[in-house]
Amino acid sequence: MRADANLLLLDRDVTRALLAPDDVLAAVREAFVLHANGSGQLYPVVREALPAGVFGIKSGAVPSQGLLGMKAAGFWTGNQATGGDGHQATIILIDPATGRPLCVVDGNAITTERTAAAGAIGLQLLARPDSRQLCVFGTGVQARAQVAHALRALPALERVVYRASDGRRAPDFEAACADRCEVAPASCPNEAVAASDIVVTATTGRGPLFDVSAVSPGTHINAVGADTSGKRELPDGLLSRALVWADDLAQARKLGELQWVTATFPALELGSLLSTTLPRDPSAITIFDMTGLALQDLTVARMLYERALARRAGITVPWPW
Predict the structure, then answer these.
(1) Domain that residue 272 falls in
(2) Domain check: are 16 and 161 in the same one?
(3) 53-62/46-50 β-pairing
(4) Residue 294, H or E segment
(5) Does residue 105 share a domain with residue 85?
(6) Which residue, 55, 155, 168, 217, shows the most beta carbons closer than 10 Å to its own?
(7) Measured between alpha carbons, how far is residue 318 from residues 4, 185, 236 in Å?
(8) Cα–Cα distance between 136 and 85 in angstroms, integer?
(9) Helix/strand/coil for 55
(10) What is the β-pairing status of strands 159-163 and 46-50?
(11) Phi and psi for 219 in degrees, rounded to 5?
């Protein structure tokens, strides 16, 4: 009954406790499939500059599954001065039959994990299985998550080199990786890229991080940081040397690395690879342009919602209408 309606709230700590890497990976894979076969709908992205940061909304639906919702998110640099997370995200699941909210979820951990899981799927589909060294630009929350998921996705990985934004050593980043692989800072970005099988760019996207000449044949790149108009991490001329995939082409052409090439630049969507076998040319440079899909947020949030209901986790508040 309408008077007995409830709203489930999943805060940061509950959300983190309910997340499991393998389950996130499965939910993100489902999102790619739903997008590829047309079952999932993506609505226009809102991305606006504010005096204190950047604010955005990503939303979508899967009508056949009764899934509808949105994520309001952005980045507020001032939070870091007080010890807070600059990235802020909130996900809302909505009943498509009535428009009533079902669940409000802290979206920070979901965003981190679903993005890293998408990166892992990109590695499984595009990177060489025998890849030994990964070079990551960035040492923040997303960089660490990308490395963690990469090490699970590609067991042959044995060494990680990293480049912090200030070029200094990052002891916390090293400690997070040390029990799983060899880890070391990169004194020269170009040399690190040239020596690596995989490159992950997980920065704030202020400009190219290395020279195009540094990328060797056979290298795979997960480009994570360019998610807003004007942001980039890859150098001019690299995309034209590579085979490029995106999570969503229209979105990537507006917000991702694909915004820096012509609208007719040939690229494909990663989800198409989940239903076909693509022989990998070991000499080809491959790029996964990652801008993040609303469907990924929603499939992961739904999984958490169902798990929370089963475990009676979270806070239930009356929400009559």
Answers:
(1) 117-292
(2) no
(3) antiparallel
(4) helix 294-311
(5) yes
(6) 55
(7) 7, 51, 54
(8) 21
(9) strand
(10) unpaired
(11) -75, 140
